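Hi everyone, sorry if this is the wrong subforum. Our group has a chain we'd like a structural model of before ordering constructs, and none of us has done structure prediction before. Sequence below.
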Amino acid sequence: MARITTNGVIILESAPIASHNTPDIYATGQYSPFSEAWVVTLTLTKPGAGAGAIYAEFSMRYTKAEIDSYTGTGTGDTAKIENAILQAVKATLLALNASITFTIV
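Answer:
Right subforum, don't worry. Here is the predicted structure as tokens:
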């Protein structure tokens, strides 16, 4: 399963500050054709532990145009959509945590 890995403590909320040490980040996207928007749920887990060690879950909202601005890669339509969503999440996380490396794997 594709995910984003990190190399340090990341911050996702500012009040109160919620930080997590080197989590693996799984993104699940749900598209609404009515609002033309994606709601992406981020599941943060202990590195390498998968669903067995969930730290927290967060939601992010993206417009259809924001996701469409990324060129997804992979074999098949689903892989391409998943990759485009991960690219958008990675860009958002990098804007919040400029000193952290985020890697799509």
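For your construct planning: DSSP finds two helices and seven strands in the chain. The radius of gyration is 13 Å.
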